[in-house]
Design a protein that fits this description.
Distance between the termini: 52 Å
Helix content: 55-70%
Number of helices: 15
Radius of gyration: 19 Å
CATH topology of the largest domain: Leucine-rich Repeat Variant
CATH architecture of the largest domain: Alpha Horseshoe
Mean pLDDT: 95
Number of domains: 2
Order of helices and strands: HHHHHHHHHHHHHHH
Low-confidence stretches: 1-8
Shape: globular
Strand content: under 5%
Structural class: mainly alpha
């Protein structure tokens, strides 16, 4: 007999399912990937995605799951929330709650980049000091570069100065976010590739070690034969 699909949507039932799916081994594995979570069941990403698929889209459930503070519940919340119902205030509230790169990137990649306020939040958060708020700005920028197929080159060209301005931040998760954004913008089109390469070259001349690291990695990738061929096909 085919197993019955999950029939929530109440928070206690979702948490109970996550607890059943969790394991000590997975919890201990989080640290190996640099994921520091105060409350975690230890559930594999594939299992969380499957659970979210069974739940379907539900904005109210997503809010309630987020408020539990559990890492896996917040991850599921990113998959089940409804982008068109996400407000700017919610984005700010969730962003302040980011405490590791994984929840930051998952929310940006699966939810925030589909909201009407996404570009505005990139600008706002890029000026913030908090480590994961600032990472969110550049993770969101990278996700928009990857997913927003309708945006023109100028929209992303206007974001390059933010990358250049913040590239000197030495914090690991911030500089990796900045690098990610620069490399994905440079892959969008021939024109943006040229502009991103120019930014990379300027960063290589920076007195800041983080900026030079970002510039070196981006320049190597964006001028590689494979990337140049892929970008040329987008002409």
């Amino acid at each position: 007999m085919k197993p019955k699909k999950f029939e929530p949507p109440n928070v206690k039932a979702v948490l109970a399912s996550l607890e059943r799916l969790g394991s000590r081994r997975e919890r201990e594995g989080l640290a190996r990937y640099g994921i520091v979570a105060r409350k975690a069941f230890g559930v594999p990403m594939r299992a969380m995605q499957s659970l979210a698929k069974d739940l379907g889209r539900d904005h109210n459930l997503a809010q309630a799951l987020w408020e539990t503070g559990w890492y896996e519940a917040r991850t599921v919340a990113a998959f089940v929330d409804e982008p068109e119902r996400v407000t700017a205030a919610q984005m700010d509230r969730w962003c302040r709650g980011f405490d590791n790169w994984a929840i930051c990137d998952t929310v940006c990649f699966n939810l925030f980049d589909r909201t009407p306020q996404a570009y505005k939040k990139v600008e706002q958060w890029s000026r913030r000091r908090e480590e994961f708020v600032k990472r969110a700005a550049f993770a969101l920028m990278a996700c928009l570069a990857l997913h927003d197929k309708s945006a023109g080159d100028e929209k992303f060209a206007k974001l390059l100065p933010l990358i250049e301005r913040e590239a000197g931040d030495e914090r690991n998760f911030v500089k990796k976010g900045v690098s990610w954004a620069l490399r994905l913008i440079g892959r969008r089109s021939p024109d943006l590739n040229v502009r991103a390469v120019a930014v990379s070259r300027r960063l290589l001349e920076s007195p800041d070690a983080a900026a030079r690291w970002i510039g070196k990695g981006a320049l190597r990738e964006l001028t590689s034969a494979a990337v140049l061929r892929a970008v040329a096909r987008k002409q």
